[in-house]
User: Fold this.
Amino acid sequence: MSSKNLRQFEQLKQFLEQEVLASFREVQEAIEAHAPRNVPTNGTVHQLTIDVLQFVKLVVQNNQTITKFADVPSPAHPIKTKHQKTVCLLLLRSLFTNLEQKTKAGFKTAPESCLFFLNNAYHVLTALRTTNVNGVLLASVVGEDFVTEVASSVENRIQDYLAVTFEKCLGYLLDKNASVVSKKELSKSERHKIKDRFSGFNTAFDDFYVDQRTRCVPDSMLREEIKNRCRKFLLPIYQDFLQRYMHVPFTKNLNKYLKYPAGTIDSLLMGLFE
Assistant:
């Protein structure tokens, strides 16, 4: 090959390198800049999440072709790398940056925000663990550290969901200074306080159930996990509350205040997201 042809080949190679890298940068920037308030009203998996995962699959599928033109080290171009792992992680981290922005800007309540993040993060986690591209799981491409990071974010957000969702309910159920009440005679003030706690819990649980019953959690495994965690979180506290006050003579009409036996709470929680 003549020196002229070599120069032309190098120029072509540099042009292709620049085009490939510019494409990655544009995709990364577009992901991070995706409108924070653009969210599905029911909090389901966002189309952006689906599109980014599809793009990651394309990167893995075409890794050999892409890396031929993306292996030019330069501080000015951090995406220039032959490692598909780096490219995939950049795209996925950009996605999570945008998802966090959407949770803050796109929803009016904390429970809605938590469920939206959970739906999307769990979708990514499931895709990483189950999607096979050219005989390789995506989890193997991005590395176990990132998979663990996503799994931890799912777990943390479930805990956040439980805390913010049941905050009002717990305000009526928990009394750190209370002991089992055994007095046969209660003052009017004491009876009134117990009635307020039962009534307050009933109202708080009603509000929770109406708000959360039809929320969208499309993944069946995530749906069951959240429901079971709700049961384990709320039921023991509610049962302790009932044990404390069920046999206390604070009212002549117990049915007026005991709207929800423990078994009913259990059944209602297992009917969430349907």
Remarks:
- The longest strand covers residues 132-133.
- Strands lie at 132-133, 136-137.
